[in-house]
Structure formats: C-alpha cells, structure tokens
Amino acid sequence: METETLDPAQAFMAKVSDRFKPVHELxxxxxSSVQQFYSGATVFLTGGSGFLGKQxxxxxxxxxxxxxxxxxxxxxxGKSMEQRLVDMLKxxxxxxxxxxxxxxxxxxxxxxxxxxxxxxxxxxxxxxTIADExxxxxxxxxxxxxxxxxxLATFINIRGTREVLALGKACKKLRSFVYVSTAFSHARDxxxxxxxxxxxxxxxxxxxxxxxxxxxxxxxxxxxxTTSLIKGWPNTYTFTKAVAEELVRTMGKDLPLCVxxxxxxxxxxxxxxxxxxxxxxxxxxxGYVYAxxxxxxxxxxxxxxxxxxxxxxxxxxxxxxxxxxxxxxxKSSAPEKDEIKIYTVSTATRKPITWRVVQDILANKxxxxxxxxxxxxxxxxxxxxxxxxxIYAWLLHLIPAYxxxxxxxxxxxxxxxxxxxxxxxxxxxxxxxxxxxxxxFDDRNTVALFDSLSEDDRxxxxxxxxxxxxxxxxxxxxxxxxxxxxxxxxxxxxYGRKKQTVxxxxxxxxxxxxxxxxxxxxxxxxYYLFVLFNLFFK
Length: 538
What we know:
This protein is α/β, with parallel strands linked by helices. The chain has 2 domains: 1-29 and 264-307 and 347-538, no CATH class; 31-255, NAD(P)-binding Rossmann-like Domain (Rossmann fold, 3-Layer(aba) Sandwich), CATH 3.40.50. It is built from 20 helices and 15 strands. β4, α8 and β5 form a beta-alpha-beta unit. The radius of gyration is 25 Å and the shape is globular.
C-alpha cells in the first residue's frame, strides 16, 4: 500500500521537532530547582498579549505548577479585556498546552488596565488584590515601535515602568521582580563597534523630568524637539528604554529586582514548537523576511559584514524565568546586597552571524522551501549605500506599486500597493541602523547564570546561544513565517518550487523590458523638457 509522503517543509519541521522530544519529557517531570521555585506562585504580568508575553505564559503553565497569573489588559478595537484574553488564547502557540492542561485558562485572570495610565489604570480593588496575592512580577509591556511619538513612548515605557515599580513595592509577598529592557537601550552612536556592559549607564535625562515634560507640553511642540532630545539614540524606543532603566536603578534598589536585556527577538527555536512567531512581529525583522519570502520585497539596506543579533523568543523567556529564580536566591542568601543584576541575552558576541551569511541562507537554502503563495520571484538586492538603496527601492518597489495602483483605479478598485511599498521602505530604514552597525554586548552575567543551573534546568530552560545552528534556525524561521503568517499549512512546497522557476524566467524576461521602458519614458520626458526650455528661454 502506497503511503502519502510529507511535504518537504513539513518533513523538515517534524525532524527538528522530534529532536526536542526528550526535553519536553524532562519538562513534564516538574522536579528541577527552577520549576519548584514557581510551584504555587502567583504572577503579575504586563505585556501578556505581546510576542514575548504570550510565549512566557505558555512556558510558565507547561513547565511549572504555577497557581495563577494576573495579566494586565486594556480594551482595544471595541473588544473587552475578557474577549481579548479569549482571542489571545486561541493562538496555535497554546495548542500543546491545551492538550496537556485543558483548564489552564481558568488560572489566568485578566485585569483591566493600561501601562500608559497612572496607577496602570487599575481600580483600587484590583491594585489591592494584586498587592495582597502576587509574589512574582514580570514587566514586559512596552511600545516597541521605532517611530512612536515621544509623548506616548514616555507614558508607556517610562511612566508605566514607574507605576509597575510602585505596585511591586506594594506587593506584600514579593519574591522577585523582572524588568525586561532591550540590549539596544544604550547601543547609542558613541558605542558603535564598542562594548555595552551589563551595568546601568548615565541617563540622558531625569525620568521624572521627561515624564513632566510629556504630561505638560503640547504634543506638537514635543514632537518638534524630539530629535534634539534623543540625540545619540536611533529612535524613541531605545531612548525611552534607556531612561526607564534609570527609574529601575533608583526606585528598584530595595526590591528583589533584576533586568533582562534581549536583543532582536525572533521566532521560537524549540518551544512549544519550532518556528512559532506572532503577527505583532510583522513590522520588525520577521516582517522583512516574510516580505522577501512572498516576493514582495526585493531590496534591503545594510552592511554585508555586519554582525546581526537575533535571539529566539524561547531563549529570552528561559533567561527571564531563571533570572527571577536567581534574584530570589541571591536576595535570600545575602539580603544586605542591593545590587541589581543585568542579564543581556544576545548572540552577536558568542554566536555571531553576518548579514551576508543570512542573505546567503535566504537566497539558497530557504529557496528550497518556497511558499506556493509567493506573488513573484523571491530575490533581494542589498546595499550599504543609502542613495543606491533608494534607487533600488524606486525601481523595484515604488514605481511598480504606483503602476499597479493606476491599473486598480482604472478598474474601480482601491489603491493600496503604493502604501504597502512605502511601509516596506519605512520598515527597511527603521531596521537599517541595526543592520549596518553592531555593538559588543557583554553577557558575562547571563553566562554565569546559565552555568549556575543544574543539568536538568539547563535543558528545560535553555538559553545557551552557542548551541544555535544558524542555517537550520534561519530555515525554521522562514517555515515558521509560512506557517503562522502566510498560513499555507506548509503544503505545496513542490508546487512552490515549480512556480518559482516560472517566475524566475518571467522576471528575467520582463525586467529588462521594464528598465528599457523606464529609460524611454525618462528620455522622452527630458527631451520634451529640453525642447520647452529652448522655446521659452531662447
């Protein structure tokens, strides 16, 4: 009897998943030191609906016998916080957990609030309940938009952190508080190609002063002075995270607190399944890889030899969970110490990969697993020359998009491709700072933390970046994007290869014609402008 064979993409992901089965079996025992630390714990979590937060919730329930999680949620797009929680838990991320613990959602309590509001927008009742019951706080919430206006970024990333710290001080049974920052909080211009240590740096401005400015100053006026305020930082995100760390240093010195600084967080490497990625990542590195895989993006800006710094989301959360355990252990053994440890989770120092290698993997190995839903031949021209990038962007993205929009208008359809092309260019330029520069992130505290774990905990809560197989991980990332973004079920890979062959031939025929047509149009325009000039000014 002939058996149906797996699609090559499905076979590859199954092979990767099978390798991690022993770890899942070990996790199910629940006997390790870190697992026992969370047994019966009550957690308060901000950012629970985000990429990092959702995976953290999943890992907590699957790997530990946690008692309850309070998740701060706000009403959004007409949905109540309860409905948002229900929708969030429908994510395929929780499929394995649902099979193992069908009632896990009963232990999640959504509390109405907003990190941009005073007292987090919590009612007095919710504030007091959390203060009475919670013993572990994870503050993950932040606006990660690079182009966020400074007022909102200040309210969420700085004032919100102040309010969570105040709540932490009110918690009567607090054992551990983890603040999640970013490795790029102090990766400013003066440190490019230099060391960024696991320490607190001088804040560019007093947190309270910046909060006061944001609360009192007109938004338009604040926007006008933003460039001068954030000088040295590439965007409002990294700037406000730097200022927030000063709040953590000053307000948190009497708390059992630590800071975790991840670099660019990307898809899961193994948990709960390889390749999981959230739609909230669409405007970051994952969004760019997705656009290339669909044949929508064909150009990028970055330095070929630059070291990139991608970290799997499950590695970041494993570091967060173990950092909370270590913080409690350290405070218990030496309560007089007020040092706040910083843990950087980064790959560029101990497991570097260059932009050129990533491009090579995408252009060659990833091409073996194309999605059948690709709209054109998948290729990308990369340059570190800004002028050349914009020439590529106009030729390969913007002009074709405007031509298609013109055709759409003729047929009475809505124009949308021009806006999409503009968003792609905007996203590429937002990432360009990190694709064309690198920093040497010190991660000795993180390495020491990992080395202090038992053998079982090193497997269950692995964040040893040196064991990442980059070619395999990049492929897992691409297939994860197919599974969770494109949603093609990892089917049709063979058809996708044939389609790419056809699209390649079409591209090689049409591109010269397209460039010739643009040349002729430009020639005619300049010729008639020259003639008109002579007529009027002769």
